[in-house]
Specification:
By secondary structure, this protein is of the alpha+beta class. It contains 2 helices and 3 strands; from the N terminus they run αβββα. Helix content is about 30%, strand content about 25%. It has a 3-stranded antiparallel sheet, covered by helices on one side.
């Protein structure tokens, strides 16, 4: 599946996490997707990228 825009990823990713019991919102304080679930203390935070690049991997690993 070729992705032209990151926004194309929102619906399928949102559906994936909603099926697992998360309440999902978009664009919360510079995060692409944030999910919360009543049985978890920490929120789920997703940064969506249409391409996997070295700077992207470095950013994730350094967080």
């Amino acid at each position: 599946m070729a992705v032209k825009y990151e926004t194309e990823l929102y619906s399928p990713v949102k559906a994936f996490f909603e099926q697992r019991g998360f309440d999902v919102k978009a664009e919360v304080r510079h995060c692409d997707l944030v999910g919360v679930r009543s049985d978890q203390d920490e929120p789920l935070i997703v940064e969506m990228k249409k391409l996997l690049t070295s700077p992207c991997c470095y950013r994730v690993c350094s967080a």
